[in-house]
Amino acid sequence: MTMLASKPSAAPVLPLRRLAQGCTALILAYCIFELGRRSSTAPQSLLAPLPTVGKARPVAAGLTHRGDALSQVDVEYDVVAAMKKPSDAAAKWTPARREGFKAPENSNAELYDEMWTGKHTYRRNGCWACRFAPDIVARLPFETVLDAGTGNGQMVRWMRMHGKAAFGVELSQAVLDRDAPDLLEAGFVEQGSLTDLPYQDSQFDLVVSGDVLEHILPEQADDVVSELVRVSKRHIVISISLKSHGNERLHTLLRPRHWWEAKFQKHGARPNRALFWALQEKQVRFSRDKGELESCRQEGVEDDGGKFEVCLVKLPWLMGIPGMDYRQIRTITPANAEVEPWFFVFTKDASTVKAA
User: Fold this and answer.
1) What is the pLDDT of residues 266-302, one digit of tens each?
2) Over the stretch 87-111, which tens digit does the pLDDT of each residue have?
3) What is the pLDDT of residues 178-227, one digit of tens each?
4) Which residue blocks in the chain are alpha helix, DSSP H?
5) Which among 51, 98, 212, 285 is placed 20 to 30 Å from 219, CA to CA?
6) Could you give the CA distance from residue 245 to residue 331 in angstroms, rounded to a whole number?
7) Burial level of 2, CB count in 10 A (0-12/13-18/19+)?
8) Cβ atoms within 10 Å of 6's Cβ, excluding its own
């Protein structure tokens, strides 16, 4: 029997053509993306404003566009008027204080009065720690919290708005008088030094601090770390700046991560790696060969923790609460790809905890 070979059918032309067009479009889109990502290599390019796309419009609560820049809109919260009912235990709780305590004098007080209230100063609603406050509330069980170096008290306001018994200590009396008179009157914040806190041991479930410890003097480091650990019951979550770009006069204690971790371990608090990994952002995509690491410099002290490199990268970010700074550059430590804010998370060793 003769078998008739069937004629092969023609390949569908239209689907293949569409597939080719789709692949071409994907390749073109990727090339455009890479061209835009690599286009700026000069250091001054980091200062160029991001373009405004379309009509200017609000981009977040408390933030608005003006031309090509984001402008500040103050965010106010009346914490005293919004306090929970008196029956709420957290609202009524106050930390036990040390008998006969007298706040020590600190030679830096006048400097930070000027920093907060002088001609060239931080924004009045600035709040470094507020940027990571939601992550802390979502990941840690706590009711009582101390904001160490509270500045204008915004972190205390934020925590109380979320039902936490929050208190703050700030070196600058001037900023408390100007920005937090209600918190002063309510007893939620007070002037003081982190080298000698007014509270008894193990008072706070959590101690937080946002970009403060780089401002202390090197000879104060042990006293400050010891005090933060002493008043904490369990958790310590802080950010510490590792850079001096534009802050050479005020950033008096720049040390690498391993130095800070060893310092806290010395005083009874071990690194909490799990929470650190949840909080710390890393960016491995920046290349030195492509000129994406700019204005690099060596920070630190050779015989006290060693030197470490910090560079600028073009990486826009919103700092703090809506209405605070919107910046187009951040700093990075290329050795570990960590970008600011640099988080340090500790858990107080049970052996160091004293009954409150």
Assistant:
1) 999 999 999 999 999 999 999 999 999 999 999 999 9
2) 465 678 999 999 988 877 777 777 7
3) 989 999 999 999 999 999 999 999 999 999 999 999 999 999 999 999 99
4) 13-38, 89-92, 109-117, 133-139, 154-161, 173-179, 181-186, 221-231, 257-266, 273-279
5) 98
6) 9
7) exposed
8) 6
Q: Which residue has the tokens 């002290």?
A: 301
The CA distances from residue 299 to 256, 257, 280, in Å, are: 8, 12, 20
The torsion angle over the Cα atoms of residues 66, 70, 72 and 78, rounded to 10 degrees, is 110
CB-based contact 332:74 (threshold 8 Å): no
Residue with tokens 């979502």: 138
Q: Which two tokens stand for residue 256?
A: 């690498």
pLDDT over 70 for what percent of the chain? 69
Which tokens in the block code for residue 150? 């509270």
Question: pTM of the entire structure?
Answer: 0.74
Contacts of 178 (CB under 8 A, 6+ apart): 116, 117, 124, 152
